Amino acid sequence: MDWTSLLAVALCLSIVTANDPHHPRDDGNNERSVNEVDSEGRLQLVEAVIEKDVDRMEWLLSYGANSSLIEPASGKCAMGVAFEEGDIQVCWLLMRYGGNPDAPDSNGGTARSHAKRNAILAKFMRLYDEDGHMAFEEQPGSWQKAVTEDTGLVYYWNHHSDVSVYHPPPSCAWFRTTTNGHPVFINSVTHQHTFLRPPALSWRRCISPSTHLPFWINHRANVTVYHDPAELPQELLEEEKARTGQYWVNGITGESVWHDPLEEEWRVSYTDEGDQYYFNPKTGQSTWIKPKELSWQEHAYDDGSGKFYWFNEYTHDSMIVKPEPLAWRMVQVDGYSGI
C-alpha cells in the first residue's frame, strides 16, 4: 500500500464514525476532568481505545485527555494500547492529538516499540520523526467554524468526517509568536513548534477574475476553498486578507510561488546583547559566520562602463546576473494568476 492510499484509508475510516455535524457532543461530563481515574482505577481514554470507540476518543482528546497517562488498573497508557493492537485509525487519531510514541507504560513498553512489528505504524513513526504531529493533521480546509442554534457557541465542524467539537482541533490550534525576533509557530493542542509556516497556515487569498469573488489557496496542500479557513487565527486571517493576490516570481528562473521564499532562507538575527548571528528557519541552524547564501555583493566594473557584477565573499565566485536566491520579487494582482 502506497502512502497516498494509506491517507485515503485513514480518511475513509474517520468517515465511518461520523458525529452530528450540527452540534458537538455534550454528554453532561464536561465539568469532570477527562484525565481522572475512576473508582476502579481506569482512565476514560484508555477504555475508549480498548473499546475502539473513536467518537468518544475524539471528544475526550478535544477536551485534553492525555494519551500518555498510565491507567492504574492495567498499567498501560492509551498510546501503548492502540499501537499494541495495531488499529490504524485509532493510532492516527492519537498521534494527531499529540500522542507521545516514546511514553512508556508501567512495563517500559512504548508505542514506538510496538510500531516496529507493523509496517504501516512504522511509517507513522517515520512521519513523526520527520514532521512531528502536524504530519497527522487533517487536510487544510477540512474544518469550518459554525455556531450552535440554541446557545450561540462557536464550534468546529469537519465537512469530510462530520465530526464537530467545541475546542479547536489540532490543525486549527496554530498561532504565531516571536523569539529573538523570529516568527515561531506553536500548536496549543500538540505543543509542537516550528520556525517554518505549517501547512495548516499556508493560505493565500485571491480574487477570481471571472466572478470577482474571493477564494483561498493552500499552496502546501494544493487545496482551494471559498470560505475563510478555520485554521487561520484572527491575526493571520486579517494579515492574509491584506495580502490578497500576492505571489512571488524569480526573475532569473521564471518560477512562481505563492509564499515568500525568503521566509525559509538564512536571515540575520541578534542576541539579547546585540551581537549579530545568522539563523536558518528550515534547518534550525545558527552560526556566527555569514553563510554563503548571504555573501553575495553587487560591484561596479572598474572600467567606468556603469555595468555591475555579483561577487560572493564566501566562495569567491562571480557572475554577471543576479544570483537566483536574490532574484525573487513580489507581484500583486487582482485576480488568480494561474501559477
Model description:
Strand 4 and strand 5 form a beta hairpin. It contains eight helices and 20 strands. Helix 2 runs parallel beside helix 4 (78-85) and helix 5 runs parallel beside helix 7 (119-131). The chain has helices spanning 3-16, 44-50, 54-62, 78-85, 88-96, 111-115, 119-131, 234-242; strands at residues 70-71, 76-77, 143-147, 154-158, 164-165, 174-179, 182-187, 193-194, 203-207, 214-218, 223-225, 246-250, 256-257, 267-270, 276-279, 286-287, 296-300, 308-312, 318-319, 328-332. Mean pLDDT is 87; it is low at 1-22 and 27-31. A three-stranded antiparallel beta sheet has the order 3-4-5. A three-stranded antiparallel beta sheet has the order 6-7-8, with no helix packed on it. Strands 9-10-11 form a three-stranded antiparallel beta sheet, with no helix packed on it. With 339 residues, it is α+β, with helices and mostly antiparallel strands. Helices cover 22% and strands 23% of the residues.
Counting helices, strands and paired strands, the structural category is alpha+beta
Q: Helical region count?
A: 8
> Rough shape?
globular
Could you tell me the mean pLDDT? 87
Task: Name a few traits of the molecule.
3-stranded antiparallel β-sheet; 339 residues; 20 strands; disordered N terminus; alpha+beta; 22% helix
